[in-house]
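Example record for the data management plan.
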Amino acid sequence: MDTSEARLDTSTAKLSVLADDANICGEAPIWDAQTDCLWWSDCDGSKFFRYDWRSARHELVKEGVQVNGCVLNEPGGFVITNNSGVWLWDASSQPRLVAAEADGFPCQLNDCIADPKGRLITGSWFFETGKEPQPIAKLFCVETNGRVRVLDEGFYLSNGLGFSLDKRTLYFADSIARSVFAYDYDTECGQVSNRRVFVQFRKESGVPDGLTVDGEDFVWIAEWYGSQIVRYDPDGKLERRLNSPAKQTSSLIFGGPDLTDICITSAGVYQEPIPLMPPGYDVESGYRGGALYHINLGIQGKPDFKTNIGLSV
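Corresponding structural encoding:
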């Protein structure tokens, strides 16, 4: 669906800053309802942060660990994805490797999400600045026993993931393709089928990055280079835009005690213009990003699933 078809423009709504640590590339926001804490990373800065909603304070939890994607793990701690694979981690010690490859393919991974049965769904990326991108990235499933298998392939830069309310649709973004795909998802066996384009972003717009699904089954997408987040109905029709002070909005999640606060990461990193920047994009002026934002529009999110990958893996 073309992004010019918005029926409701909420550009006058203002985002508030929750924390500003000048993230090189803020990513991987997750909400922990048990502790009322928001976690997120600076994946290029190899930093991991926590914001405590009860005290309204945030802290740097760990340095030296790259976190491109992150989910809560039922046995404890997190499962994280990064350029070297899939890891178990409790944020205090060093991560423990679960998998670095699958069927001979390297797990150079970006975003991730848990499925309803405790598996991990994640995608790879092999885009190098200044080189022609190749569709060699894959979508993976990590079983609860740590075994990794390929779900689909033919992607450029894997990014945001989300499930519909009925758990039957998996959404998946490929930033360089400027596409958000939808799959039929078989929860029992963890398989995808019937890939189709849910939203195709125009060359003149930003590119789809992180995404999440709210409690009304609408899909929210962060637009890198777009200075906005956007909301689509289940049919792929644009319902609203929400302007961001940061040009490079990178990801988002619903948090807060009532799951009505949209928490949005952003990135200050500079990217060369090929192939992601829209034509005429101004790289010299304006605020690229680095802060963590939030806004409450009275729309409720839905809890994310947790992985159930055993600590003995």
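Summary line stored alongside the record: The CA atoms of residues 140 and 150 lie 5 Å apart.
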